[in-house]
Amino acid sequence: MREFAELQRDLAPACAANAPGSRIPHVLVTLPSFSIGESLLSHYADRLPALEHRYLVTVLLLPRVPGCELVFVSSAPPPPALVDHYLSLVPRAARASVRRRLWVLVVPDTSYRPVAAKLRDRPDLVEELRRHIGGRPAFLEPWNVTADEVEIARRLDVPVDGTAPELWPLGFKSAGRRLLAGAGVPVPAGCEDVHTVEDVDRAVDDVLRRRPGAAGVVLKLDDSGAGDGNVVLRRDGLPGSAGHLRDAVRRLPDWYLTALTLGGVVEELVTGDRFASPSVQGEITPDGRVTVLSTHEQVLGGDSGQVYLGCRFPAEPHYAAELGSHGRAAGEALARCGARGRYGVDFVATSGPGGWTLQGLEINLRKGGTTHPYTVLRNLVPGRYDPDRGRWTADDGTVHCYCATDNLVDPAWTGLPPREVVDAVDREGLRFDRRTRTGVVLHMLSGLAVDGRFGLTAIAPTPAAAHELLERTHACVDRLARRPVAAGP
Prior knowledge:
Dna Ligase, domain 1; Alpha-Beta Plaits; IQCH; ligase; PGM1_C; ligase activity
């Protein structure tokens, strides 16, 4: 912590240099390293480079910050068509300057490891980056902060815009529930710090005693993300349902029960006539001030219905203000603990006779699936999010929304050349238009080669218009994939 604190002394001036309009020469090192557990890393496997490439949208800030040079670190080069796509979205007069101020630093390593760990094993690349920074103000912008990110920052002698790794457990499911409750944020009935099947048995009995009408429980691994450590156990109206749930726990895979020994939570499976999964994204400045940046409706799916697939911005107006208030309270509690940088809070919202009810689920001390869409909006449609009114107002007074996903996927799209996808979107008139401030921004195009997957952010004046843009893009790419192949000579 002492060494980390010494690095952090330079964070405030480095962040100040990165403000819109700043001409102070400085370097922003974007390190989208998914420093997470091995089981989760292996789940993403070949998709890791594509997930890293989501954060290449950071290049869109360069026209707004003339003094900034961006170093984007990745384990594989992004498709040239993707870089060209982003350059096409900046003012023509700024494109040459933006290209000069972007350096993609590739760490060539195909192992299923975080890119920070890969870079740490390449002292020659770290030294090259250090020479490139050359003593200018600089900071590291990681996805999350572990010992690997801190070691790279130490070798570069630059601060980190994030929370010290010693505080990382604040984002674990058990600690997060306790912090939310302590900040006055309602949480579902549940039990923290379960480690064994017997602990789960007791927790299930406790939840069903307190909430006899509960539809079931959710078992969550403490150190997990994107819903991949969540298991939904439903009662399904069965007699002796507590025993039924206990049997289901004993049928979980060995790897899951092993991971559970490190800790987890059991909480009520919240249901309602209407159900939503909103979230709050906030930022804690180097001096501890909290800003609510955005609220979202998360789109969840997967076999458990708990896996993050995309989002809609902003959250529903019925509860957006209350959501922002809870998100700020959580951020202030985190700041008092010493957390800094980006954070997120996931909620569940249910509607009943008395209106909407919000309950906090978990805290993320890192960037997430809502970070890169927000980056797109902030840099292409400069303005601010008003947490009291629950909307984004651009500098010209217009209101904007977006719909975003990392999971437009079809096996029939596998192998589609990114250049052809970009060109097809352009021909359909779907690409973001700076004049109307409406349109689509693509990302993750390298995922097409892996499993026919890519992502996008669709910006429009209304949620319905943004969703329509997403659907039109889906149809556009589908037509491209299914076009007749010309016969050879």
